[in-house]
Amino acid sequence: MLRLFKLGTKLNIGTQLNLGTKLNLLLVFIFFLVVSVSGLLLSIILNRNAEQIVTDKAFLLIETMSSVRHYTSTQVNPELAPRLETEDEFLPQTVPAYSAREVFERLRTRKEYQDFFYKEATLNPTNLRDKADEFETQIVETFRTQPTLKEKTGFRSLPGGDIFYIARPLAVSQESCLRCHSAPELAPPSQITTYGDKNGYGWKLNEIVGAQMISVPASTVFEAARQLQFSVIGILSVFLLLTIFLINLFLKKTVTNPLKKMSQVAQRVSTGDLSGEFKHLADDEIGILAASLNRMKVSLEIAMNMLNSESQQ
């Protein structure tokens, strides 16, 4: 019984609503549906686009650093390598990792790149600034356990925000590398003088000793995507509300107001007042209904006159 009462109450409320109110409720429902679905789809599209932007930047930078490493290895190192035996201090310019890092640090002096990072994270580096942290060590170990894995990407959360990283394995691919990293007694004297004989030794040919890593800030890009999403949703909402207003105005002028006037004419006719007439110039459904109402009024007026004539006889 309670369910039937509630259902009856809902139906009663629904039947009591006028046409304009029902239309507004429908338009409000459509408004929230369109905004919700559009917001969801826009969020997915913009997030994918932001991720693609971040990825493209990272790939461009890591390819650039790989080119710097190759240039140093093939052109700079052969020219400076003989001086390692005679110089009092080690010449880091002969090391591809050093060249790539210095070039990138120069790039970071520009404001738009100050939150980008490049590192050749190494488990046992000669220069301790290349020492892998805990997160980077896990990546290097992943490359060591999966030799066929050529690249690893993902997001990393830091206090300053999320960053997107690309990591590639660094392996000892040339015999010449072992000259400085196999054993301290085989290393150039200048290297021992500068870095000591404790770090960066014991490497083996084809061994993965580190990971080349580029870190690109992602928070700013995703924040810009969210701001764009809010802006688009705001503009869409304004246009939808304007559309709802115009639809209401149009329907009020062409549908609800004419129906109200016809209802008033019909009510006067039902009480015997046949003087009223509804005029609607448009040849649409409302016009057809108005013409039918006027014909009915004329027919009723004729019928009433005939009844009056018969009663007088």
Give a summary of the structure in a few sentences.
The protein has helices at 2-16, 19-80, 96-107, 134-145, 178-181, 189-195, 219-270, 285-312; strands at residues 117-122, 152-158, 161-171, 208-217.
What does this structure look like?
With 313 residues, the chain is α+β, with helices and mostly antiparallel strands. The chain is built from 8 helices and 4 strands; from the N terminus they run αααβαββααβαα. The protein has 2 domains: 42-217, no CATH class; 233-313, HAMP domain in histidine kinase (Helicase, Ruva Protein, domain 3).
Please specify the SSE layout and strand pairing.
Elements: H1 2-16, H2 19-80, H3 96-107, E1 117-122, H4 134-145, E2 152-158, E3 161-171, H5 178-181, H6 189-195, E4 208-217, H7 219-270, H8 285-312
Antiparallel strand pairs: 1-4, 2-3, 3-4
Helix pairs in contact: 2-3, 2-7, 7-8
EC number: 2.7.13.3
Enzyme class: transferase
Domain Cytochrome c: 155-297
Order of helices and strands: HHHEHEEHHEHH
The pLDDT mean sits at 81
Number of structurally distinct domains: 2
Helix content: 55-70%
Q: Give the number of DSSP strands.
A: 4
The percentage of residues in β strands lies in: 5-15%
As a whole number of angstroms, the C-alpha radius of gyration is: 41 Å
Low-pLDDT runs of 5+ residues are 4-11
Supply the helix-strand structural class. Answer: alpha+beta
The N- and C-terminal alpha carbons lie at a distance of: 60 Å
Organism: Hydrococcus rivularis NIES-593
Main location: membrane
Domain HAMP: 253-305
Protein name: histidine kinase
